[in-house]
Amino acid sequence: MFDLDPPGDDFTAVREAARWTHELLEELELPSLLMTTGSRGVHVVVPLDRRMPFDEVRAFARDAAELLAARHDHLTTEARKNARRGRLYLDVQRNAYAQTAVAPYAVRARPGAPVAAPVRWADLDDPDLTAWRWTLATVDRLLKDDPWQDAPRGRSLHSAGRRLAALHGREGKQP
Questions:
Q1: Cα 85 vs. chain centroid, distance in angstroms?
Q2: Do 6 and 41 meet the contact criterion of CB atoms below 8 Å apart?
Q3: 3 state SS for the chain
Q4: Residues with Cβ < 8 Å from 25, sequence gap 6 or more?
Q5: Which of 25, 28, 124, 170 has the most crowded Cβ, counting Cβ within 10 A?
Q6: Does the predicted model carry a pTM greater than 0.70?
Q7: Are residues 108 and 115 in contact, defined by beta-carbon separation less than 8 angstroms?
Q8: Rounded CA gap, 53 and 31, in Å?
């Protein structure tokens, strides 16, 4: 999981980072799903086959996030807010033992009762899409046409890990 956490409420930066993340995952031949968080950002979820230990999954996610940050100046992997300097944070900390993440369709404790909502990648082109677009009052429309209904099966990270290492090597940085 990649939690795209913007420095403010500008969803344009989130859209851009989500597209870049999706492009990298396609380069690595990994399927991915998109979900608004009901807060400020989105989660990019990679369905896995659950064979790899979480330490290796977290390392893969960290390496992928570092590559994205190296490719795009507007992104960072810096966990400390004061060190991000206005850049969008690629948070991969959810990929660790005993960590939690917001579940699809969870209602967030925020004004308007926004819902963490699975969406299609094409929905990024909708100018009305925000992290809090779907609410408890409107989620029934989303449920009628579940965007994740045909979600891809979980994949192994082994081949993608080799491809990621090769990309790091081509760009002068070893994972």
A1: 20
A2: yes
A3: CEEEECCCCCHHHHHHHHHHHHHHHHHCCCCCEEEECCCCCEEEECCECCCCCHHHHHHHHHHHHHHHHHHCCCEECCCCHHHCCCCEEEECCCCCCCCCCCCCCCECCCCCCEECEEECHHHHHCCCCCCCCCECCCHHHHHCCCCCCCCCCCECCHHHHHHHHHHHHHCCCCC
A4: 31, 32, 44, 46, 64
A5: 28
A6: yes
A7: yes
A8: 19
Q: Name the average pLDDT for the chain.
A: 92
d(CA 10, CA 135): 19
Please tell me which residue, 23 or 139, carries the higher pLDDT value. 23
- Give the position of tokens 């500008």: 10
Closest-CA residue to 65 (of 4, 12, 121): 4
Tokens of 17: 């980072």
